Amino acid sequence: MGIDCNGTCSRPSQPASPNPANDLPISPTPTPTIGVSVAPKSAHPAEQTNSSSATLIAVGDIASCTSQGDEETVKLAKAINGTIAVLGDTAYESGSTADFKSCYGPSWGQVKDRTQPAVGNHEYQTPKAAGYFAYFGAAAGDPSKGYYSYDLGSWHLIVLNSNCSQVGGCQNGSPQETWLKSDLAAHSNLCTLAYWHHPRFSSGEHGNFLGVQDLWNDLYASGAELVLNGHDHDYERFAPQDPNGNLDLANGIREFVVGTGGKSERNLAGAPIHNSQITITGVYGVLKLTLNPTSYNWQFIPVAGSNASDSGSGMCH
């Protein structure tokens, strides 16, 4: 825990043409960086610190009684004012009542009052994720669904449940997908962000999760800006892309994988996949997002003793 990148932070070069396939191929071996990637600044720099901005702190794969990582990452969350999005697998191993009481409560339970959670697969090792829904209560949404939405500043935020078999599926026409379409249609916010546990795109050991394809389709069609996920225990940022992984700088969704909450560290499955812009492994930390009225800023903040970082900004569609 808390080590520097030591060559595991990378920014791959991009192929000359996008790949339309759903399951994306491995890109050529990238040239390592020193764990720092800064994207071009917004065309409206005055909005970088706009007084009407809101802050979101995001991370998943967090608390275990056998790891001290969550005690380190919660220090970061406590030092930042803002809403907290936990991206699933919050209390290991099984999201039981005991896991939340003994493992999550003493660390990330300190910021429970400002947490908006998403449910992970480990929570469902307890039937119906009963420990998770009991612990977070109304903040986690309807226990039979685990998906909900809320506004933060001028942004609309949507929390989805990627444990598709537990909620009647994620495919087109499923209850969750139908709800998502309705929710998107009912909110006219310029800027939209969604988060859930399993990433559609990932260079980590679990790889791409195609089960959320139709949810991505809906978010892309509505002009969403950002998707946040956990599941793979690393940090990864992608360029804006369409649901099939084609680079789309004008209208694409930028995805972040932030499974660096403290449970454990894991390596990538291989070289970063297409459109991956930076990966960080071997480091715990959180993602800080500043949500401005027409733009956003991001910053990966590592735990004390690590210097891996990533920061930049983008515009809403």
Determine the CATH topology. Purple Acid Phosphatase, chain A, domain 2
What is the averaged pLDDT score?
87
Q: How would you describe the shape? A: globular
Please give the radius of gyration in angstroms.
18 Å
The N- to C-terminal Cα distance equals 37 Å
SSE diagram, text form:
Layout: E1 10-11, E2 31-32, E3 54-59, H1 69-78, E4 83-87, H2 97-104, E5 115-118, H3 130-136, E6 148-152, E7 155-159, H4 175-186, E8 191-195, H5 213-221, E9 226-229, E10 235-238, E11 254-258, E12 276-280, E13 285-291, E14 295-302, E15 310-315
Parallel strand pairs: 3-4, 4-5, 7-8, 8-9, 9-11
Antiparallel strand pairs: 1-2, 3-13, 6-7, 10-11, 10-12, 13-14, 14-15
Description of the structure:
- The longest helix is centred in the middle third of the chain and has 12 residues, at 175-186.
- The protein has a single domain (51-315), classed as Metallo-dependent phosphatases (Purple Acid Phosphatase, chain A, domain 2), CATH 3.60.21.
- Helix 5 (213-221) links the parallel strand 8 (191-195) and strand 9.
- Helix 4 (175-186) packs parallel to helix 5.
- The chain is 15% helix and 23% strand.
- With 317 residues, the chain is α/β, with parallel strands linked by helices.
- It contains 5 helices and 15 strands.
- The chain is globular.
Characteristic terms for this protein:
disordered N terminus; six-stranded mixed beta sheet; seven-stranded mixed beta sheet; 5 helices; alpha/beta; 317 residues; Purple Acid Phosphatase, chain A, domain 2
